[in-house]
Amino acid sequence: MPYPKVYIDAMLLNWGDRLFQDPFKHARAQRLSRAGVRDEATRMRDQLARTLRRTPEVMVKITNKASSAQGMGAVRRHLRYISRNGQVELEDQDGDRIAGSEAVHDLARTWQLGGWGIPETSHRREVFNVLFSMPPGTNRQAVRDAARDFAALEFGDGRAYVFAAHDDEPHPHVHLSVQVRGPDGRRLNPRKQDLRRWRERFAEQLRANGVEANATARRTRGATQRYPKQGVAHMLARGEVPIYWRGVANAGQRRAGWQSHDGVFAAWREIAQAMAASPARLDREMAVGIADFVEAMPVRWDAPAVINRPQQKEPPRPERTPPELDNRPDAPRPDVDR
Fold this sequence. Notes:
Blueprint: H1 5-21, H2 34-52, E1 59-63, H3 72-82, E2 90-92, E3 97-98, H4 101-113, E4 127-133, H5 140-155, E5 161-166, E6 173-179, H6 192-208, H7 230-237, H8 251-276, H9 281-295, H10 298-302
Antiparallel strand pairs: 1-4, 2-3, 2-5, 4-6, 5-6
Helix pairs in contact: 1-2, 1-8, 3-4, 5-6, 8-9
């Protein structure tokens, strides 16, 4: 028998928050009016639909973390880099365009001497360098416009920043340099939840500019591929082998990854069960889509037959050979239902 829609919406918010937001966050339904629950549930359904159809994911990350703390010398070098020594146009917080090496030099001097100023050398971070990127084929102008709108919303309190769109690589991307100190002297200190909000807000601005974009955690999608950091990627491109980086996770890392996905599977399962009991046909169809989506997750194929848990009493079964390592024609298909 179908459950009332208000119950389905509350369950959707409860488990959707755990899946897309904070795994330890309590259900918002307990603090919202009935209309508020309905509106938030609609947004959650949109998020689910984007994820199930594998909408392109945005990338937002802070780059050059080490050099960002070295004062104006590092800031000057980065401004030259993102402007390609003045050949790529910069745009500042006021919408003014900055082109040419002399104009970039003047910008650096203004940043060094204006406002709170930036010392030539510093042990504290003076500028955050943020990279916004989308997969190849994404409309480049839309990515630039979305980055502009994002910066205005997130840093439009009088804080100085510039950004540049690069068109020399297949994936459209924008470099943003924003001063740590705002007009009131308070310093930016983005944490993990802030970076998550930045991704979500950038994806919102892309959608507002006509580009399908999503912002979900890798664990939500069951992704297992490990991507090298920027410095490691540059070394690999030069044919150098980093000492401390491993392209393949070791057994301990894989085990930790499988265990971290336990909560993800639980959230997907509870959402699917709630949607399957909904009186709305589209919800029930989404429940079927969730089952197919989870079935195809890469982590389902990589997981061992049994993940040891404290409450587990039966002895663990031996691990099975991953499909990519067992090429025999009669090799059994991994059990994807566990």
